[in-house]
Specification:
One of its GO terms (cellular component) is membrane. Pfam families: SRCR. It comes from Piliocolobus tephrosceles. The structure is a single chain. This protein has about 425 residues and is mainly beta. The protein has helices at about 40-50, 145-155, 250-260, 350-360, and strands at about 5-10, 20-25, 30, 55, 60, 70-75, 90-95, 100-110, 115-125, 125-135, 160-165, 180, 195, 210-215, 215-225, 230-235, 240, 265, 285, 300, 315, 320-325, 330-340, 340-345, 365-370, 385-390, 400-405, 415-420. The strands form 6 sheets. Strands 1, 2, 3, 4, 5, 6, 7, 8, 12 and 13 form a 10-stranded mixed beta sheet that branches. Strands 15, 16, 17, 18 and 21 form a 5-stranded antiparallel beta sheet that branches. Strands 22, 23, 24, 25 and 28 form a 5-stranded antiparallel beta sheet that branches. The chain starts with 6 loop residues before the first strand and ends in a 12-residue tail after the last strand. Mean pLDDT is about 85; it is low at about 170-175 and about 425-430.
C-alpha cells in the first residue's frame, strides 16, 4: 500500500486516464523515464487509477524545457502488480546525469480521450496525408517512412502500406534522428511508437507523397470530354483497373459521381464509348445502396467475365446549378458546379423546356425566356460542353437526357441563360 505522501497521475492528456505519468515518491515529484516503458507498467498504472486496461504506451523524446527537471528512472513492472508501488521504482535523477531519452505516457481504456489518427485527402480512409492527435498536444501531420506507414495502415484496418510518404531516406547525418515518429514496424499501433515533437518543424508536407495502404479504393473517369465523363477505372492500392459495363448499375454510378464531386449519374454508355482500358480488369462488382459517400464504402461481390470492348462508361451531371449576373438569383447565366468550381453551360440545344426545369429546380417559378449568346456575360471559366434534352416536366436537370457536344463543343461566349417568373426567395440559386 502506498504511503500517504506518494501519488501518481496522468497529466497533459484529454482526461485523467491518458497522458504523461507524473509520480510523487521519495520526497520528489516529476515525470517518469520511458526508455524501457511497456504494456506491463502501463497495465499496472491503468488498473491503479481505475481506468480499465492499457491501450497504448507512447514515449516522447524529452523536450528541452524538461531537461533540467528530475525524472524517476528505472521503473519496472511485471504487469500483475496491484499498484506502481509494488514495482521496482528505480531512482530520481536529472537528464544531465543519466542516459534517459524519452518520457513515458499511458492511454487507458477507461475514458474516450482525444487520441485519434487518420489519412486525409487521399480519396478513401486508406490513403492520404497522415494526421495524428495525441492528448492535448499539437496535431501531427507529417510524412511517414515505410515502417511507420506500415504500423499506421495496420492500425486503420487497411492492410500493409504500399507507399510511404517518404519512401527514400536521405544520406545526410542525423536524418534518422530527426524523425518525428519512429517505429520498429511491429507495433500494434502508431501510439506505441516514439514521438519526437522537437522536430515538428521538419514536417514538409508539400514534398511528401501520400501514404497508400493496400485497402485503398477510389474511382476516376478517363478519356472523356471533361473530368465528369469517361471510362470508369477503379484504383486498388496503387493499380488502376478497368470496370466492366455489366458490373456498373445505377446506384454505383451515382456513388462514383458523388465521390468525384460531379453530381449524379446522367448515363452509363457501353461499348467502350470512351476507349478501351489498357490496364487489368476489375474483378469485383460493387453493390452500392446509392447513398454512400465513397465507392470504398460499398459492399462487393464477384464480378462478371468482361470481354473486349465492354468497358464501363459514365457521364455525370455536375454538382449544382445557379443563375448569376442577373438582377436577381432567379435570372442570369446558367452555371454548374463541377469538382468545386463553377462553369457556364453551353447554349447549344438549350431551350425553354430546359430552362423551365432549372427554374423549378431553383424554386424560381417557371421559365419566361432562355436567351442565348452570352446574354448575361461570358464568365471566366471554360464553357461546359454538356447539352440537356428536357421535356419540361422533369423535377431536376439531371433527370433529363444528357449528351456531350462535339469538337469544337461551343462557340466562345455562347453561354446558356434563363429568366424565371419569380417566386424566388433568398434561398434561390445554387440548388442541387
Amino acid at each position: 500500500m502506498a504511503p500517504a505522501a506518494e501519488s501518481l497521475a496522468l497529466v497533459r492528456g484529454g482526461n485523467r486516464c491518458e497522458g504523461l505519468l507524473q509520480v510523487q515518491s521519495l520526497g520528489q515529484q516529476g515525470l517518469v523515464c520511458g526508455d524501457h516503458w511497456g504494456l506491463g507498467e502501463a497495465s499496472v498504472i491503468c488498473r491503479q487509477l481505475g481506468c480499465g486496461r492499457a491501450l497504448y504506451v507512447p514515449t516522447y523524446v524529452v523536450w528541452p524545457q524538461e531537461a533540467q527537471q528530475s525524472l524517476l528512472q528505472g521503473v519496472q513492472c511485471q504487469g500483475v502488480e496491484a499498484s506502481l508501488w509494488d514495482c521496482s521504482l528505480g531512482k530520481w535523477g536529472s537528464l544531465n546525469g543519466c542516459k534517459c531519452e524519452c518520457i513515458g505516457a499511458v492511454h487507458c481504456s477507461g475514458r474516450t480521450g482525444l487520441a485519434s489518427l487518420g489519412l486525409r485527402g487521399g480519396g478513401s480512409p486508406c490513403a492520404g496525408t497522415p494526421v495524428i492527435r495525441i492528448t492535448e498536444g499539437p496535431v501531427i501531420s507529417c510524412g511517414l517512412h515505410q515502417k511507420e506507414a506500415s504500423v499506421f495502415c495496420r492500425r486503420l484496418g487497411c492492410g500493409p502500406a504500399l507507399q510511404a510518404s517518404r519512401p527514400h531516406l536521405t544520406g545526410h547525418p542525423g536524418w534518422l534522428g530527426s524523425k518525428v515518429i519512429s517505429c520498429q514496424g511491429t507495433e500494434s499501433s502508431i501510439f506505441n511508437c516514439r514521438f519526437n515533437l522537437n522536430f515538428l518543424d521538419h514536417c514538409d508536407l508539400p514534398t511528401d507523397s501520400e501514404v497508400v495502404c493496400a485497402g485503398h479504393t477510389e474511382a476516376r473517369l478517363v478519356g472523356g470530354e471533361h473530368p465528369c465523363a469517361g471510362r470508369l477505372e477503379v484504383r486498388r492500392g496503387l493499380t488502376w483497373d478497368t470496370v466492366c459495363h455489366a458490373d456498373l448499375d445505377l446506384a454505383t454510378a451515382h456513388v462514383v459521381c458523388r465521390e468525384l464531386q460531379c453530381g449524379a449519374a446522367a448515363s452509363t454508355p457501353e461499348g467502350a464509348r470512351f476507349g478501351r482500358g489498357s490496364g487489368p480488369a476489375w474483378t469485383e462488382a460493387f453493390r452500392c445502396a446509392g447513398n454512400e459517400s465513397l465507392l470504398f464504402h460499398c459492399p462487393r461481390a464477384r464480378g462478371s467475365q468482361c470481354g473486349p470492348g465492354r468497358d464501363a462508361g459514365l457521364r455525370c451531371t455536375g454538382e449544382k446549378f445557379r443563375l448569376v449576373n442577373g438582377s436577381s438569383s432567379c435570372e442570369g447565366r446558367v452555371e454548374l458546379q463541377v469538382q468545386g468550381s463553377w462553369a457556364p453551360l453551353c447554349a447549344t440545344h438549350w431551350d425553354i423546356a430546359d430552362a423551365t426545369v432549372l427554374c423549378h429546380q431553383l424554386n424560381c417559378g417557371s421559365a419566361v425566356a432562355a436567351p442565348r449568346g452570352g446574354h448575361f456575360g461570358d464568365g471566366d471559366a471554360a464553357i461546359w460542353p454538356d447539352a440537356f434534352h428536357c421535356g419540361g416536366t422533369e423535377p431536376y436537370l439531371w433527370n433529363c437526357p444528357v449528351s456531350t457536344l462535339g469538337v469544337p463543343a461551343c462557340a466562345p461566349g455562347n453561354s446558356a441563360s434563363a429568366v424565371c417568373s419569380g417566386g424566388c426567395n433568398q434561398g434561390c440559386g445554387g440548388g442541387g
